[in-house]
Design brief:
Number of helices: 8
Largest sheet: none
Order of helices and strands: HHHHHHHH
Helix content: over 70%
CATH superfamily: MetI-like
CATH class: Mainly Alpha
Length: 216
């Protein structure tokens, strides 16, 4: 058992790097796009709000595995031929973006309307109201679900192995095919995922305490 783990470890580390790449791209792109679309959902003109709402509800209603296969096999039909790595990143990013939109909407709309009215009363512009009044308060409510979403993105990245992307899960299955030692390798993989997600959860708690202290 220990020999199988030691043999697999270098391969798992190579796959782990791909897992980190997929997770980082997914989280960073979805955060940037999701915040913009979340603000558009709240403050944009009606046609834009309807489009964002349609996108968010549709994507969140599709199982992530189905979305991955749809992007990989369906996009070539409309002339968009993506490599397996980028098809996986695109599908995961679409899914996480739809979630970030809802995190932003919930966080911003939880701020009492009186805060916005007070900011308008002292002459702040729309951008100043967002950056100086709304967003600092909404951040406290946005962080917990977003960090949970980050851990989900890391766990969801294991699905990219189904497209042949050599992430950690794919590497585990490859080594199992050579050693026929499934249990110890899955235990090792689960331990690595646990360490990553536990670290992210600890970071989430630390950030929550920090923002709670700052806004107290």
């Amino acid at each position: 058992m220990l020999d199988a783990m030691l043999y697999a470890l270098p391969f798992l580390m190579e796959g782990l790097w791909v897992t980190i790449e997929v997770s980082f791209l997914t989280v960073s792109i979805s955060l940037a796009v999701g915040v913009v679309l979340g603000v558009a959902l709240i403050y944009g003109p009606l046609p834009l709000r309807l489009l964002v709402r349609l996108f968010s509800d549709t994507i969140r209603g599709i199982p992530i595995l189905v979305l991955i296969f749809f992007v990989y096999y369906g996009f070539p039909a409309i002339g968009i031929d993506l490599a397996s790595f980028w098809a996986a990143v695109t599908a995961l990013t679409l899914f996480k973006t739809a979630q970030v939109i809802e995190y932003v909407r919930g966080a911003v709309q939880s701020i009492p309307q009186g805060q916005t009215e007070a900011a308008m009363a002292i002459g702040l512009t729309f951008r100043e109201r967002l950056t100086n009044v709304i967003f600092p308060q909404a951040m406290r409510r946005f962080l917990p679900p977003w960090i949970n979403g980050v851990t989900d993105a890391v766990k969801g990245s294991a699905l990219v192995s189904l497209l042949g992307v050599t992430d950690m899960m794919y590497s585990i299955n490859q080594v199992i095919g050579r050693t026929y030692e499934a249990l110890p390798l899955y235990i090792l993989g689960a331990a690595i995922y646990f360490i990553i997600n536990y670290s992210l959860s600890a970071l989430s708690r630390r950030l929550e305490r920090r923002f709670s202290f700052v806004q107290a």
